[in-house]
Amino acid sequence: MKKKLVSTILAATAVGSMLVTGVSAEEAKTYNIGICQLVQHVALDAATEGFKDALTDKFGDAVNFDEQNAQGDSNTCSTIINGFVSNGVDLILANATPALQAAQAGTAEIPILGTSVTEYGVALGLKDFDGTVGGNISGTSDLAPLDQQAAMLNELFPDAKTVGLLYCSAEPNSQYQVDTVKAALEELGYTCEYYAFSDSNDLSSVTTTAASESDVIYVPTDNTVASNTEIINNICLPEKVPVITGEEGICAGCGVATLSISYYDLGYATGEMAVRILADGEDISTMPVEYAPNFTKEYNAEICEELGITVPDDYVAIGAEAEDTTEASTEAATEAVTEAVTE
């Protein structure tokens, strides 16, 4: 009885303290978030960063991240997710399709948000997917308009005849993308061939074959490719075979052009969804998958110059925006110092 009385007094004291300081019970809560990222590369790293920034902007120090990388191994994704479930995290971020699949198998209770996932219906094996997964899963998609990517290829290489579709057969969303792009390209008159590799071990040999048989190569948003762009570039560039890619990070490594999204912004949007679930009590089962609102035509200036490719004026050089921001910041800092010295 005495222990119960002491506990009651302590609880009342804690509540009273929060009332005195103006801190609500919700504001005093600390949120524990598990982040499972499939592999380290530019796009996924940016999505994770954006996600964390959105939650930190809202909760400050009242959010803890258990960030783990599966190093490209789907089995490791399962191990990571099981650890999150055992620790009772408040929410899981699954960054890339295998991470989302592992999370789906690992828990039906903890809210799961995916990001850098191209098509949720394909990734999760859903029939008649209408945009809302239901249950404890939602998130954001990195799907860019595939018909517009096909149109970009046609805009840059109207005289090409054959297009090689290079992708990892172990990634279902890569298969979905090349199937869709193939149909669009064939409508434009191109002959398309699949060049599938199972993992990074046979990427070099498959790419070599694709480069020898194709006028242009198309690569979707593919995690295995994203981690091995140097292999593709070292084969395709000497052969003078241009590569159109599904996202900016891959294009920076081996492509000439892409119609891409900002993965940081995509991750930030995912973080905002997490805030609505954790702070506002929004029901994740009713939250539709969200898509990037903006797409940018980008080109790799170095590779384009080496291949003698001139892009239209509405294309932006990869890294140009960051350089402009840095220059603007430098100019502003210089002006501030000059004014201070003058004063």
Keywords:
343 residues, six-stranded parallel beta sheet, 15 helices, 13 strands, 18% strand, elongated, disordered C terminus
Overview of the molecule:
It is a single chain. The chain starts with a helix and ends with a helix. The strands form 2 sheets. The protein has a 7-stranded mixed sheet with strand order 7-6-8-9-10-12-13, with helices on both faces. Helix 3 (42-59) packs parallel to helix 13, helix 4 (74-87) crosses helix 5 and helix 9 packs parallel to helix 11 (229-236). The radius of gyration is 24 Å and the shape is elongated. It is of the alpha/beta class and 343 residues long. It contains 15 helices and 13 strands.
Secondary-structure map with pairings?
Elements: H1 2-21, H2 25-28, E1 31-37, H3 42-59, E2 63-69, H4 74-87, E3 91-95, H5 97-106, E4 112-117, H6 120-124, E5 137-141, H7 146-156, E6 162-168, H8 172-187, E7 191-197, H9 203-213, E8 216-219, H10 223-226, H11 229-236, E9 243-245, H12 248-254, E10 257-260, H13 263-278, E11 290-291, E12 296-299, H14 301-307, E13 316-317, H15 320-342
